[in-house]
């Protein structure tokens, strides 16, 4: 099969704060900004990967979600319990400095991992865990 990842989804509770972080701090480009039935979806992506997009969506964006399900999702997001994504970067330390300067919640400072990468971690404004890894240079 010829498969490629096209989109992944990250729940956010404030799209404007998320845009400031993903666009202005991380340097991702905004590809789409759509409102529908009182909800908003913003699609961002790296200029280096035009075929891969991250959709910043409301928690429990499923129209069939019950009010209880939506509340549970909002609570999990507030606790930072929803998964985020892992980015790669050629310079983990420089990225760390930039994101830390913005004031993001630091989860892990840059460190060399026993499995061969150098990485760091932050939480985005909604509490999602984001990791940034630098592969060893050959």
Key words describing this protein structure:
138 residues; alpha/beta; 2,3-Dihydroxybiphenyl 1,2-Dioxygenase, domain 1; four-stranded mixed beta sheet; 25% helix; globular
Give an overview of the whole structure.
This protein has helices spanning 15-25, 67-78, 92-102, and strands at residues 7-11, 29-36, 39-45, 53-57, 86-88, 105-112, 118-123, 129-134. The chain has one domain: 2,3-Dihydroxybiphenyl 1,2-Dioxygenase, domain 1 (Roll). It starts with 6 loop residues before the first strand and ends with a strand. The strands form two sheets. The chain has a four-stranded mixed beta sheet, with helices on one face. It has a four-stranded mixed beta sheet with strand order 5-8-7-6, with helices on one face. By secondary structure, the protein is of the alpha/beta class. A hairpin with a 2-residue loop joins strand 2 and strand 3. The radius of gyration is 16 Å and the shape is globular.
């Amino acid at each position: 099969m010829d498969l490629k990842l096209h989109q992944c989804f990250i729940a956010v509770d404030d799209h404007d704060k998320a845009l400031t972080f993903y666009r202005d701090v991380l340097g991702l480009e905004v590809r789409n900004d759509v409102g529908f039935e009182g909800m908003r979806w913003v699609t961002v992506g790296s200029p280096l990967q035009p075929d891969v997009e991250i959709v910043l969506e409301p928690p429990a964006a499923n129209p069939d979600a019950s009010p209880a399900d939506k509340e549970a999702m909002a609570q999990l997001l507030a606790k930072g319990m929803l998964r985020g994504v892992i980015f790669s970067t050629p310079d983990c330390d420089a990225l760390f400095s930039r994101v830390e300067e913005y004031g993001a919640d630091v989860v892990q400072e840059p460190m060399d991992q026993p499995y061969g990468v150098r990485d760091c971690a932050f939480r985005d404004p909604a509490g999602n865990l984001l990791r940034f890894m630098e592969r060893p240079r050959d």
